[in-house]
Write a structure and sequence with these properties.
The structure is a homodimer.
Chain A (H helix, E strand, L loop, with lengths): L1 E7 L1 H4 L7 H11 L3 E8 L3 H14 L2 E5 L10 H8 L4 E3 L1 H13 L6 H6 L1 E3 L3 E3 L8 E6 L2 E6 L3 H19 L4 E10 L3 H7 L1 H5 L5 E8 L2 E10 L2 H19 L3 E3 L5 H12 L3 E5 L5 H7 L8 E7 L2 H6 L5 H7 L4 H16 L2 E7 L14 E8 L2 E8 L4 H26 L2
Parallel strand pairs in A: 1-2, 1-3, 3-8, 13-14, 13-15
Antiparallel strand pairs in A: 4-5, 6-7, 7-8, 9-11, 9-12, 10-11, 15-16, 16-17
Helix pairs in contact in A: 2-7, 11-16
């Protein structure tokens, strides 16, 4: 079963709001086996509405629309659809009473706009809206279905979840859909594609593979569509085995999970704590960790040591090391990590020191050079990276690389302890 | 001038990502006088790409596309467009060298995928991508223009801002558009709208006003479209005077400028330095400050004191105060600020202590309660805020409120000194 989504509203076309309805609807529709093959955002005009519907029903049997159902003059979806499907607008007594009651709560009387809201297209299927005055309207002709919903996200979501999705799932013949995401850290998209070339070539045709890159992380997504759930699951399991064998610990999660969440779960599970000593990441690692609710259970604090004086005075980095090797060096970053472990009193500490850019690079240490260290009470490891020329990207990639080093260290410590 | 936007990618259609590119592009295009009359999101298939282009160029002369330009097999936009416009793919030596150089930095050799990336359609206009390997391609036929850009947001934004928008603005006949943004801190959208009610009612009809709220900040945007630049400018100047009289120091900038940039300019101008001592903001203030290039000139470091032990040991907060008043108190936050000034050695320090949520609230100190202090060597001020119930929002609003307190303090110190 294929569908299209049409969202109506000038505010989308001037970029004043981001259309988040479509993504939400797509995800929900995919989950019940209805795939979305096109999303169109159009303006509040009769021409745009009619032409987009005609195009959509020429391609698919099901069209879901949101928007343009408000009480003001710029909202013309109901009138346009009723004309298009040759339905007369008639008063819905139940809806009229409901609107009257809602208005009474705000001590407002019925006016022409509200009376208009109580009209519904005769012959269309009307699905109630528990949180607003504009109901969902389902028009059908020649096995083509056009369903119009209000654009207010929580009204639309409520209509879909509590009423529409169950009906669609029951009345249409939908296949089973399975998505499996694999989160990979530390490999660029093209390098990853090369590594996976042979594996990818042998993928069963039912598996659709997508690479979804963001700085420092590539999300690999396998999507399968079929009738036999257990068969699809078996195929995915098998392919996951192959991926694990190739990528090993480059994979940090099998859900669409952030690495800071993976770190959080590991630390909570092992009852360990972490701190950070940040130079080039400038507090971003602390920010990422503390963005998650409940982080005080495993995160104690950070020292953002942007100047050399703070590296020395708060973290206890040797001033000779700073002079001899420079702030961006293995010696200094290791002392920063060890210093943070002690000063903040945690089991693990992550330290970063690098040249985020755009200035400050040298021949020997170009912009993007970052040293990262992980310390425990009795051990410290470190690694040098060269990321990009772009400041924001370097900060983000260094943060992710630091978390990934910590993840591997925690897992290895676990392994060594049997 | 009218345009359409087409975004390509199955990840949009399965709802894995929200298409934020379109809204950003629409806003930028509107700003140079190009209106967007349709946005279409389609899948990575040849049929979908070709049919959506054909439909779009039947309605408008300019089509901007993003996505499907990666090096992997699922990305087919370049091949499809080149076939459609009958352009042969030829190697671009400059691009080849650039890709080789990029790869060399990561110590990676050229592979088949990367070599493919160096191919460009002969006859199309190629606009460089400074942050990635997929350039922007501009195809033209019979005065219809189709421009394809990578879907990675920061690559697309850079291409548009630094190269494409200036070209579009110059080569197409666009009306003069004037936008004036006013950045307002510390007032919710509805309260601001109420305060500005009378001023808004008297606005000349040529001025289109938009409220663009984000947590802690409302961007007010006046947009004027016309032929006479100086006339539009005079109207805006006049309205700005009115706004300043009403909002005073609630306005922190007149460009679309971030508050951390405003702080940076002030500190650089006065040759002063700042540090932060963060509890509930968890490093976000340090992160925001260090996101800006050149921040080491005025930012020395931070202590993220998430646990009480760190507040005491690193910032020197009195343990009796912690016990008597709790971590979220005027006493503690003032000691944190004073402690950071000393420990990090800066002219100013901002400290935050609050309950970000979702847990940890009490009757007396509900989730969203935040104490913020600003200290200098001989002075400390503090203020209590109650923000929202949402963690991310509280972190962001507390950070902005702290910066705004610092901004006002620097301006007042300046005023007192004559």
């Amino acid at each position: 079963m294929q569908a299209e989504i049409i969202t109506i509203g000038d505010e989308i076309l001037i970029g004043q709001i981001v259309d988040t309805n479509s993504a939400w609807m797509s995800k929900e529709l995919n989950a019940i086996g209805i795939s979305v093959n096109r999303i169109t955002s159009i303006s509040d005009t009769k021409d745009a509405i009619v032409s987009s519907i005609e195009e959509a029903i020429s391609r698919v049997d099901l069209v879901l629309m949101t928007g343009g159902l408000g009480p003001t003059n710029d909202d013309i979806t109901k009138k346009t659809l009723s004309d298009y499907f040759a339905c007369e607008l008639v008063q819905d007594e139940g809806l009229y009473a409901k609107i009257e009651e809602r208005l009474a709560r705000y001590k407002i009387g019925m006016n022409a706009f509200n009376r208009e809201q109580a009209l519904v297209p005769e012959g269309a299927r009307i699905i109630p809206n528990d949180f607003g005055t504009a109901p969902c309207m389902w028009f059908s002709r020649d096995n083509k279905h056009v369903i119009s919903m209000p654009g207010v996200p929580f009204e639309m979501k409520n209509i879909m979840q509590s009423r529409l999705l169950p009906i669609l799932s029951e009345e249409f013949d939908c296949p089973y859909v399975l998505h499996q995401t694999v989160m990979v850290q530390g490999l660029g998209e093209s390098v990853l594609a090369e590594i996976l070339q042979d594996w990818e070539a042998k993928l069963p045709s039912v598996v659709k593979l997508a690479y979804l890159p963001s700085p420092g992380v590539v999300r690999l997504r396998m999507s399968l569509l079929g009738d036999d759930e257990s068969e699809l699951k078996a195929i995915v399991e098998n392919q996951l085995k192959g991926l694990k064998a190739i990528l090993g610990e480059r994979i940090f999660a099998f859900d669409d999970e952030k690495i800071e969440q993976v770190i959080a779960n590991l630390l909570l599970d092992k009852k360990k704590t972490v701190s950070t000593a940040e130079s080039c990441t400038g507090g971003n690692m602390a920010h990422m960790l503390t963005s998650m609710a409940g982080s005080s259970a495993y995160f104690k604090g950070s020292v953002v040591a942007y100047s050399n004086e703070v590296k020395a005075s708060v973290l206890g980095v040797n001033t000779n090391s700073l002079e001899e090797f420079g702030a961006v060096s293995q010696q200094v970053v290791e002392q920063m990590a060890t210093g943070a472990c002690k000063a903040i009193g945690t089991d693990y500490a992550i330290a970063t020191s690098g040249i985020a850019g755009p200035d400050g690079g040298t021949e020997e240490k170009p912009v993007g050079t970052v040293w990262i260290a992980i310390a425990t009470a009795d051990k410290v490891i470190s690694e040098k990276f060269v990321f990009s020329k772009e400041r924001g990207r370097n900060i983000r990639m260094a943060s992710l690389a630091g978390f990934n080093m910590l993840r591997k260290m925690i897992l290895n410590v676990e392994k060594m302890m049997g």
